[in-house]
Design a protein that fits this description.
single chain, about 190 residues, alpha+beta, globular
Length: about 190
């Protein structure tokens, strides 16, 4: 019997940390008029741990099995500071930071080790820098640099990280829509 179309459809996936509603609302409230900015909505805010790319149903099953062996302990992080990616004259991403980064780096290392045998596509973000994307910038100018500077002293409460999520990413006119497919508890 042949697989149904929905079963063989390649899914664009990533592993990340879902943010609580209170934090998303606080971050969305940081929006200011900025030329060339496409601000992320509350439902688009997250911390990406590893981009996976388009996976078929068999690869997803192997991924879920591998993530069943995740042994990372729960930890806490805080949202602190801001910055941008891309060259100073024309940045491409405006972000807020998370601290401490060490538990996130250790979690990413463990994920990479668990996923290595699966021969998944390479992560397009080889250099992992934990952050939350606030806005994608197209044709932005020094205004974006000023916004990042204004948010340097941003401080938000502690965020307990007790699970990671497998997200489905579907491109759309207003940016990608993300939905959680499965959750994997830390500290098992």
């Amino acid at each position: 019997m042949a697989d149904t179309v929905s079963e063989v459809r390649a899914r664009r996936l990533f592993l990340g940390i879902e943010l609580p509603y209170w934090l998303c609302e606080k971050l969305v409230a940081l929006r200011v008029p900025l030329r060339g900015a496409r601000w992320q909505t509350a439902s688009q805010l997250h911390i990406t741990l590893r981009f996976l790319g388009s996976l078929d149903v068999r690869q997803v099953a192997a991924l879920e099995e591998a993530l069943g062996n995740l042994k990372a302990p729960p930890f806490e992080i805080a949202v602190r500071g801001a910055g941008y990616f891309g060259p100073a004259p024309a940045p491409t991403i405006l972000w807020v930071g998370v601290e401490p980064v060490e538990p996130l780096l250790a979690l990413r290392e463990q994920l990479d080790a668990l996923l290595a045998p699966l021969a998944l596509p390479d992560d397009r973000h080889q250099c992992f820098r934990p952050h939350i994307t606030l806005a994608r910038l197209n044709g932005a100018d020094a205004g974006a640099l000023a916004v990042a500077e204004d948010l340097t002293n941003l401080r938000c409460g502690l965020l307990p990280v007790v699970e990671i999520c497998l997200f489905d990413s579907r491109p759309g006119d207003a940016g990608s829509a993300y939905s959680v497919i499965q959750r994997f508890a830390l500290g098992r």
